[in-house]
Design a protein that fits this description.
Elements: H1 3-7, E1 8-10, H2 23-44, H3 60-68, E2 76-78, H4 84-90, H5 94-101, E3 127-128, H6 139-155, E4 166-171, H7 178-189, E5 194-200, E6 203-204, E7 207-208, H8 218-221, E8 229-234, H9 238-253, E9 259-264, H10 282-290, H11 293-301, H12 308-331, H13 339-342, E10 366-367, H14 369-383, E11 387-391, H15 407-411, E12 416-418, H16 423-435, E13 439-443, H17 454-466, E14 476-481, H18 497-502, E15 507-509, H19 514-526, E16 531-536, E17 547-548, E18 562-565, E19 570-574, H20 578-589, E20 593-597, E21 600-602, H21 606-616, E22 619-626, H22 631-642, E23 652-656, H23 665-671, H24 675-687
Parallel strand pairs: 1-8, 2-3, 2-4, 4-5, 5-9, 8-9, 11-12, 11-13, 13-14, 14-16, 15-16, 19-20, 19-22, 22-23
Antiparallel strand pairs: 6-7, 10-17, 15-21, 18-20
Bound molecules: thiamine diphosphate.
Thiamine diphosphate is lined by residues 82, 133-136, 170-174, 201, 203-205, 267, 271.
């Protein structure tokens, strides 16, 4: 028997599972969802009261059946813009649904996000993870939730999470995304309790599903995928659909690893309110209308289980419920969201560390930076069982930079482990874990290789804001980068910390020595906000970055620069590997030069920089990132504006020109800010 024949299950034709479902309740929710779509499509959209409308018309049945089966205390669902029927079943109120579309205060996001991008926090029962606008982004966070369920139940012995599952909903277009494949790999290789719930309406916007996966059927194509239970159902067949959903949920709940269920559904409206569906032939539109699951549900229940009068009464009740909620929402003295309010919730406020914690308790011997990082990770792993560390090669090998050497054998493979080679997977997985309350610390092997994770990183940064403080994912992403002591190259030596400064919601930490690395990493691992922790490759074992290990309790505050050398003639602002070069350059000039190590890029210490410039009247910024729109440009703009009257010379910048770092070592050094070049610029700025 072929593998696909073994794993693809077609549910029996008509087992009539009527006793297991509260059909009347389901009809109510179905009709409510229809009434909401009707009201939006026929009233609010033409009146331009809402700007986005993504009708769930045609998708309701499967979602409602699924939602009624999410009975695990720690179940988590990651949905997308067509998932409103599921949310209505799980407790989203009609007025919150309407408020979200109308961009009113309250609702799901306080007018911040488009109406159908939902979330639903729950202290018990199914949580709906924050959705996002990007197709495919819903997948990898769901793997993190599934992983957290298993970790909580098996390692932390939390009885609440036992038997809980993660579910991710997606359309047939979404199966072409990187996120889908990253999540599928993670879920199947780790055999996670996760259900992929694919609602195949035959189109991704205007593109047919045959363009998304060969033959247009992802379930059939995945027949040979190991560790994946596969099922299919057609939502015009009510009993078959109910059976297939029930069986898939049960399979995952029983701990048999992940499952993928493909439901065939019609899309009965355009992709969104603006879409006329001109790309669909009239015969297909007619066929879709004929395949409306609501008609089939009616046949299935009326008159045997529900009288025609009862059905009609439920229809009227649903329409009336929507009208009533709209009347309340539109007339309520609900304040419009304000600008002041919209400025909140990018970051949570972390309590500053205690005075004691910021004082180093130095050991006699000096430690290099990588050993300091390893010790910090080790201590935090010991202190907090919610800390997990993963990434490429961080397990048995201990990381290509050795930051996690020995940690897997000390703490076990459930705490420190290798990930698949997918940066989107690593970050999205971490986001889901953090949403579930764990404290993941992930390693991206080299700065450039964070690029595949860009979407997950950006969405993680805006998560607290988008959900108006309902959710956050405080992950730590360790990223080695910059030139190495031996050579550079375009792949392993990228800096580009400014990219993360520009991404909203990230703390960006860039230590120049072992002591600061310890204090900043520990602070990041305890922060309520996500952090990028930049590890400069040339500093990991450089003598200049060695410091006595400052102790297991040492923590540094963010946004507090260090004046590493005081001076009165020039302020130099720098960070990372340039700190030491600037100190050497300053020594060559014989002038009195203040050197400030910024230590954290977001937040950055404006006060220390501005106070220094006000005294010295001159400012030079030195960084390794490329010149154009490097972070130096931001500092220069602030200094030019805020210290304008104090300046006796133009604010100067030295940075790498706008080219990648070359491999040839001498060539690389000619590109990097060199000690002599820095010294010359220092002298000329002082002379100006
Ligand atoms: C990454 C990304 N690319 C493109 C889009 C624009 N877009 C929004 S929905 C959509 C089609 C998605 O189709 P599918 O996943 O099948 O879901 P359906 O709308 O059919 O339910 C596209 C192209 C997007 N939101 N995100």
């Amino acid at each position: 028997m072929s593998r696909s024949a073994q794993t693809v299950t077609h549910a029996p034709a008509d087992p009539r599972p009527e006793h297991r479902f509260d059909w009347q309740h389901m009809v109510k929710t179905f009709l409510l969802s229809r009434a909401l779509d009707d009201f939006e499509e026929k009233t609010l959209l033409p009146a331009k009261q809402i700007n986005y409308q993504f009708s769930a018309r045609g998708h309701e049945l499967g979602q409602i059946l699924l939602a009624t089966l999410l009975t695990g205390e720690c179940d988590g669902v990651s949905g997308y813009y067509r998932s409103r029927p599921l949310l209505l079943t799980l407790g989203l109120s009609v007025s919150d649904a309407l408020k979200s579309g109308l961009a009113k205060s309250g609702g799901i996001s306080d007018g911040r996000d488009i109406g159908v991008v939902f979330n639903l926090p729950k202290s018990t029962g199914p949580t709906v993870l924050p959705m996002a606008g990007g197709v495919g982004t819903q997948y990898t966070p769901a793997t993190g939730w599934a992983h957290a369920i298993r970790y909580s139940s098996e390692t932390l012995k939390d009885a609440r999470s036992r038997g809980s599952i993660a579910v991710v909903l997606g359309g047939d277009g979404s199966v072409a995304t990187n996120g889908f494949w990253a999540a599928l790999n993670i879920a199947t290789t780790r055999r996670l309790p996760m259900l992929f719930f694919i609602e195949d309406n035959g189109y991704g916007l205007s593109v047919p599903s045959t363009v998304q996966t060969p033959g247009g059927n992802i379930a059939r194509n995945l027949g040979a995928f190991k560790n994946l239970h596969i099922a299919e159902a057609d939502t015009t067949r009510i009993a078959q659909t109910a059976e297939a959903i029930e069986a898939s949920v049960a399979k995952v709940r029983a701990g048999n690893g992940p499952a993928l269920l493909r439901l065939t559904v019609p899309r009965l409206s355009g992709h969104s309110g603006q879409d006329t569906q001109a790309y669909k032939p009239a015969s297909l539109l007619a066929e879709e209308r004929a395949n409306d699951p609501l008609t089939f549900l009616h046949h299935y229940l009326v008159p045997d289980r529900l009288s025609p009068e009862h059905w009609t009464a439920l229809e009227e009740e649903a329409a009336e419920g929507v009208r009533r909620a709209y009347a309340e929402v539109s007339t309520a003295a609900e304040p419009e969201p304000t600008r002041e309010h919209a400025m909140r919730y990018v970051f949570a406020h972390d309590e500053p560390p205690s005075e004691d914690a910021t004082h180093a308790q130095p050991e006699p011997a000096r430690s290099n930076m990588i050993a300091a990082i390893r010790r910090t990770l080790e201590y935090e792993l010991k202190e907090n069982r919610k800390v997990l560390i993963f990434g490429e090669d961080v397990g048995a090998k201990g990381g290509v930079h050795t930051a996690t050497m020995g940690l897997q054998s000390a703490f076990g493979a459930d705490r420190v482990f290798d990930s698949s080679l997918s940066e989107e997977g690593i970050v999205g997985n971490a986001v889901g874990m953090a949403l579930a309350g764990l404290r993941p610390v992930v390693e991206i092997q080299f700065r450039k290789y964070a690029e595949p994770a860009t979407e997950q990183l950006n969405d993680c940064g805006t998560l607290r804001w988008r959900t108006a403080n309902r959710f956050s994912a405080p992950i730590v992403v360790r990223i080695p980068g910059g030139f190495s002591s031996k050579c550079g190259d375009p792949w392993h030596s990228v800096s580009s910390e400014v990219t993360f400064a520009h991404a909203i919601g990230w703390q960006v930490l860039y230590p120049s020595n072992a002591e600061d690395a310890t204090g900043l990493l520990r602070a990041a691992m305890r922060s309520a906000n996500p952090s990028i922790f930049f590890e400069h490759r040339a500093l990991l074992d450089s003598p200049s970055a060695r410091r006595p290990y400052p102790g297991d309790l040492f923590v540094l505050p963010f946004g507090v620069a260090k004046v590493v050398q005081s001076g009165s003639e020039l302020t130099v602002v720098t960070w990372g590997a340039m700190v030491e070069r600037c100190l050497r350059a300053a020594a060559l000039t014989g002038a009195s030069i203040e050197v400030i190590d910024l230590r954290t890029i977001v937040p950055w210490d404006r006060e220390t920089v501005l106070q220094s410039v006000q005294r010295t009247s001159r400012c030079l910024i030195v960084h390794e990132d490329t010149m154009t729109a490097g972070f130096g440009a931001e500092i220069a703009a602030v200094v030019a504006r805020e210290a304008f009257l104090s300046l006796d010379a133009p604010v100067e910048r030295i940075a790498v020109p706008d080219i990648p770092l070359p491999y040839n070592t001498a060539l690389m050094e000619s590109i990097l800010p060199g000690v002599e070049v820095i010294a010359e610029q220092m002298k000329s700025t002082i002379r100006f």
